[in-house]
Amino acid sequence: MDKSWGLGPSQALLPLLRQGVKGLPQALEQVGRALRAHRAYLFRLEERQGIWYASQLSEWAGSDATPQIQNPELQNLPMREKGYGRWLDRFLEDRAVAGPVASFPEEERPLLEAQEIQSLLVVPIWVEGKLWGFLGVDDCQRIREFAPEEEAFLRLVAEALARALELWERARGLERLLEASPLYLARLDREGRLLYANATFKQAFPEGIFLPVAKALGAPNHLHTLRTHEGRVVEWSLLALPGPGQEVLEVLALGVDLTAKEEAEAREARWNLFRKNLLRVYETLMAEGLSESIFGLILEAALETVPAAQAGSVTVLLEDGCYHFVAAQGYDLETLRQVCLRPDEPLSPTGHKGAQVFTWKDLERFDTHLDERRRKVMEEAGRVREIKAILSVPVYLAGERKAFLYLDNFEREDAFTPLDLELAQAFASQLGLLLRRLELEGQIQHLAYHDPLTGLPNRLFFLEKLAQALKEEGPHLAVMYLDLDGLKLVNDLDGHAAGDEVIRVMAARLRAALRPRDLVARQGGDEFLVLLTGLKTSAEAVRIAERLLEVARIPIAMGARTYHLSTSLGIALGEPGLSPGELLKRADLALYRAKGEGKDRLAFFEPQLQEALRQEMNLLEALRQDLERGEGLWLAYQPIVDLRTGKRVALEALVRWRLAPPSVFIPLAERHRLMPELGEWVLRQAARLAGSWTGTA
Question: Which of 178, 249, 485, 619 is found 20 to 30 A from 219 (Cα to Cα)?
Fold first, then answer.
């Protein structure tokens, strides 16, 4: 080894130490020259879905070697699949690959020889305990073995590169995190000038922001928090960082925007207050009914819900067709009772549909249109000239506008916020819906859990009861899944109205045939669900199921026609740990078995049903594909002989399939309605063969 070898490691490591990953090109060149190689390179190894891929990331090539950095075969190269499993195994064992290419296994040589490589040395790179890639050199002219100190040198560079990669990936991840962070992140100098700001900071403060850093500078390494309110509420944490000489070089600033949070909290607090006050009105209304006293409570609750309201009143449409004051706070109610406001007057309560704010200018116009007596009452008892803003909210009862709520402010035209209008409108709307809601509550509850056609509980109700029963009874229950046989014929013959009537009759029969504690529900269409509880043995479930089969067979007379239906029934017994959905699926599989065995019968769930169904679905899919492609099926011809003459008089065409005998795939095709396609294929094949015989006769 030449005398310059001692300088090799330092010359190769120096670019990595100074520049990190950016010094990789210079480091590769120094590695190549130190090892008297013609190329030095870095490859990345990545495991994706169990396959290891190699991609060249960087390369130095001497003047007497062809660069390979643009070689597409060196990108996303699957290691094992391309014959380099030996390399991967050695890398995973932290071992090098080295020596003359001619000595390598045959499957490795073509790609290496295409790059004119005579000898190579490659060592793995481990980053944070994981195989990251490999570093290597090529000798394109000599057949050589690499000395142990040469491998040690390359491993030293690989280790330095691994550390640089760790720092680079961490720094890159941190930089991405800072830029993507919703927090305001910045670095400031001692005077508070901005040195760095992330994207969130720049977007929020495009003109910058002054942060007082004096307190943070006075106590380095200690967090100092403060709040700013420059258009938004931000909580800042400032941290002064001292340099090597303990002198503070910069201040880190972390800002958390609390504007939305505080607005949301304030909004939620207002809505909580609204709900509390609304509940108080509901309770009174339900206890006392609709009376004049309820409007006083409406007003009191609204004033508490909308803090900007300093006074208020309520008017109600009475039998004389006018709105009369029935409640007031901050005003003389007894005097205001004398005023009748017609719906067609300028500030008519019926002139707007939702919450609306009027100003003192609107009140002045309203005041001038009143007669002298009413004007005097409104100015004195109603303080019309003192009001700056009035929030008028219509109140609906049973869908009819019956009253109005007025909330007044004596200080500012803009006293009421959009949230005030929203709350007031919601308050009035909810109150108006209350009476109707009480009336419909029972109906809604029934409709949510029952089938409208039969009146039976629906699937949602059934699942809730099943979940409860599984917790309480566990294995002492059973679920039945029923499907009516023959309903389609009823619909085809006499229409869906007749089919609906048959479903109603059958639902009544099923309900009557069950024990009082049992539950029958309509799943939908012609399917029903039954929950049996308190079972001591499976024999009880069988007896009940047989009774259901019997009642389903009873003819149904409708008009001049009598329908004969039956039912197929699947049973699944409860087991510890089963969910309602799993138990229902088991019953469905058992039903599938019952229908497959000929209908009008019951079947229990057995574990092998799932495997049998899976196998049948696989066979079905294969049969469909073979029919579409015209593959895998053939005809076997059996001669028909006249026994008197001994001559063949005809041929019988027998269809055969590659995956199953006729006893299996013919019933399969019948069950899944593939017989027309299968029959067409048989006729087409037989006719083609018959034609060829005729042509050669």
Answer: 178
